[in-house]
Every structure is written in C-alpha cells, then in structure tokens.
Amino acid sequence: ETIIQVKDVGKTFIGKDNRVEALKGINLEIHKGEIYGIIGMSGAGKSTLVRCLNFLEKPTTGTVMIEGKDLAVLPERELRQTRTQIAMIFQHFNLLMQRTVLDNVCFPLEITGQKKKEARGRAKELLEIVGLSEKAKAYPAQLSGGQKQRVAIARALANNPKILLCDEATSALDPTTTKSILALLKDINKKYGITIVIITHEMAVVQEICTHVAIIDGGTLAETGTVEEVFTRP
Ligand code: ADP
Ligand code: ADP
C-alpha cells in the first residue's frame, strides 16, 4: 500500500541572476511500513525533496501525494491535519533550549490542543519509549547528542504520525550513538508501523536500517530498489 507518491516532481529556485534546478522529474513510491533511504552527496537535492514531502517547499512541477491525497489541492484544514501525520527529526535536533526535556515533548501536544495534564502523561510515556525517563527534568544543554536526538524522536512521535522524516538525523553523532539511534528507529517502525524516510549522505546508515533506497544525484534519481538490489547491481 502506497503512503507517499512523488510524481514528476521538479523544483527550480530562481535567484536574481541564477537558476538552480534542485529537483528534476523525481518519481518515487514509498509503501506503508517501509524504512526508505534517500542517499546522495551534498547538494544532490535531498533536503529539497524532503521539504517537498511535508510541503515546507512547494514543487515547481509535479505532485506529492500522501495516502492518495494531493497536498497541493487539499483544503487548508485537511492540509494541516495531514501535516501533523508527518513528523520530522533533524541533524541539529531543533529542541527548545529554554524548556525541559518533558516540556519539549509536551510542546506539539499543546499545539494540537491537549490539556496540560494529559499532555504530560503522554510525554512521560514517550520518554519511556525512547529510554529517557530519568532526564525528564533536564534541559537540552545537559544532554549528549544521542540523548537530544531521543528527545526529538519522542517529540516527533507525540501526535501519532504515520510518517517520520529523518533529515541527516545521525550526521552529528558518532558511530556508536548512530547505531543506537538507528536501533531505536527500527524498533519504532516495527512496534508502531510508522513509515520512516531517512535522508542521509552515509551509506552505512542505509545499509544498517533501510529496506528500500533511492540514490539521488544532481536533482535526479539515479537508482531505486531494495537495498540488496541497489548495492549488489553490477
Ligand atoms: P542536499 O540536501 O542534498 O545537500 P539541497 O536540496 O539542500 O541538497 O540543495 C540542492 C541544490 O539546490 C543545491 O544546489 C542548493 O544550493 C540549491 N538550493 C536549495 N535550497 C535553495 C534555495 N532556497 N534557494 C536557492 N537554491 C537552493
Ligand atoms: P543542507 O544541505 O545541510 O540541508 P543547506 O546549507 O544546503 O543545508 O541549506 C540550508 C537552508 O538554506 C535550506 O533552507 C535551503 O533551502 C537554503 N539554501 C540552500 N542553498 C541555497 C542557495 N543557494 N540560496 C538560497 N538558499 C539556499
């Protein structure tokens, strides 16, 4: 069952005296429950593509469909609802530094209108899932990189997303911490059936966790397939 469909997506940035074709005719189909890797070098178009998936960026051409719905023509209210089903984590975690770990995880729950007490209860559950219950009262600055990413994952899961987009989520972490974060993502995928899209420039990350992979180069997809297919093709 297809959850994300990218059809002929192009994105051109037009500057004062230049034009950058960041994406050219991208076609991609991601199925429910997959861990899908999008790998490419710096400047290949990975961030632009992932930003098109949650409509932080509007494609110049083509369509992005989430569960068969074209985000470009969804009414505002439905678009907002669909977007809460697409969560994201980042290379630099993007935590709120003035808030405790627990309050960081509560934040998206407050935004979607949950009562304070329920939000805190849910946030505590989420911290347990990511193995950080004992840090609930700490501030982000007191945490290691891996712990910060665990908080970000807990926050991302708060509103029960169907899709988790990971934009270079392990690029700031050492190899051991990277492994533990990838293990957590795998666990979440298995337990909750959340579709995970991993954007990375690191081959090892894709080989460790992904079921399917797309190689992006110069704004086009060079190859797509299962990890075995793509990495053993002659
Ligand atoms: P990656 O994430 O793979 O490093 P990006 O998607 O960030 O690649 O960038 C792809 C290309 O598009 C690069 O040449 C980049 O400079 C350009 N680009 C990205 N965002 C913008 C923007 N907002 N305005 C102009 N050019 C952009
Ligand atoms: P990354 O490649 O790590 O995603 P970048 O440094 O390429 O990060 O981009 C950071 C931000 O700057 C993004 O929002 C991107 O859209 C924007 N950006 C990237 N390249 C350009 C560019 N050439 N002109 C304007 N904005 C850009």
Automatic annotation (TrEMBL):
Which keywords annotate this record? Amino-acid transport, ATP-binding, Cell membrane, Membrane, Nucleotide-binding, Translocase, Transport
Q: Name one GO molecular function term.
A: ATP hydrolysis activity
Does the keyword field hold DNA-binding?
no
Q: Which residues form the signal peptide?
A: none
**Cellular component GO terms held in the UniProt record:** plasma membrane
Q: Using the record's annotation, list all stretches that form the ABC transporter domain.
A: 4-234
An individual GO BP term: amino acid transport
Is the keyword Transport assigned to this protein?
Answer: yes
Q: Which domain of life is it from?
A: Bacteria
Membership in a protein family:
Belongs to the ABC transporter superfamily.
What's the protein here called?
D-methionine transport system ATP-binding protein
- Organism field: Kineothrix alysoides
| Phylogenetic classification of the source organism | Bacteria, Bacillati, Bacillota, Clostridia, Lachnospirales
Q: Which residues of the full protein are shown?
A: 2 to 235 of 336
